[in-house]
Amino acid sequence: MKFSKKRLKEILRGSLVRTVVFNIKKGYFPSFPVILYPKVFIGVHKKGKVIIEKDAQLKFGVAWPLTGYMPSTLKIDNEGKFHILGKFKFHTGAFIVVNKNAKLEIGSGYTNNNVEINCFNHISIGNDVAISKGVVIRDSDNHQIIGNSNPISQPIKIGNHVWIGLNATILKGVHIGDGAIIAAGAVVTKGVPANTIVAGVPAKIIRSDVVWK
What distance in Å separates the CA atoms of residue 22 and residue 37, rounded to the nearest whole number? Predict the structure, then answer.
């Protein structure tokens, strides 16, 4: 990644000292692919990993113009892996946790404010993804129901050019196909075919062959 005047301006808009220290500690000097913003807390276990691919970028805790910053958290536990493959932006209020031995892979796109991603197994998010305010993505139930043989945790895969609406919830084992739309407030408990809209609790297909921009 080339270091440009534009990149310098982006870094100066963030928390300069924390951004510089984080990138140096993680071996990303002088390209600075990670920009941290005010009120961001980063907790990385000594065996946790942040992996940034060539030309990928991560902006964490960004505020929309003329708005303030809320607390944002990124936690990576023991042997957890946070893998950034494209250019991705988390807006302020994010709560992102990669738990022990889990892997979170993210392509390109953005989240709006107050998004929670809690990864206990494996969560994969594709490219050109738009995740609205208040969305929760969680790949584990955390508690076993007696008599239920289903696994507590199962991977989540979100495809390319997916739009996840306001306050939607994506639960374990879900695969969302390319171009799909998740309606506001939907609770997604099973796979979503490509280019469909799902809505409701639990979410069901309400329209097929959709295209959004």
Answer: 12
